[in-house]
Amino acid sequence: MGFFSAARQGRKDDAELGKGLWRRAHDRFQRGLDRFHQVLEGVEDDQLYDELVEIANDLAVLLERVRAVCVEAQRRSPSEGLDIPVALSGVHRALSKAGNSLATTAEAAAMLRLAVGPVPVGAASVRRRAEAVFQQVAEAERHLHEEAS
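RESULT FIELD:
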């Protein structure tokens, strides 16, 4: 992304996500995805690489969903600071858990990358951790929907 496109995207993010809580939740998730993709660069085993790429692609799809939740949360409860709105505390908690789970998923992938010799179960541990990320993003969406009702 060039300098001007990055600046344009930053302004768009400021408008849609604000500069507070919801922006931080979105950006943390995005950093977790970036870290996961960085880990992929060092995987030498082709079979493991293929498994991890599939997981990475599945997780990347979640970014749009996380962004949609954060944009809607910002619309409902604008945030320029770090105070968690009571009405959307469940949404924030689920997004925080998803960000944490994504970080541990990237960490698990990094540990597999460093393994010596063939990995007998492949990326099963990474997939289990990724499932938690999917569940937590779905939980954030559910909380957001419940708060709208």
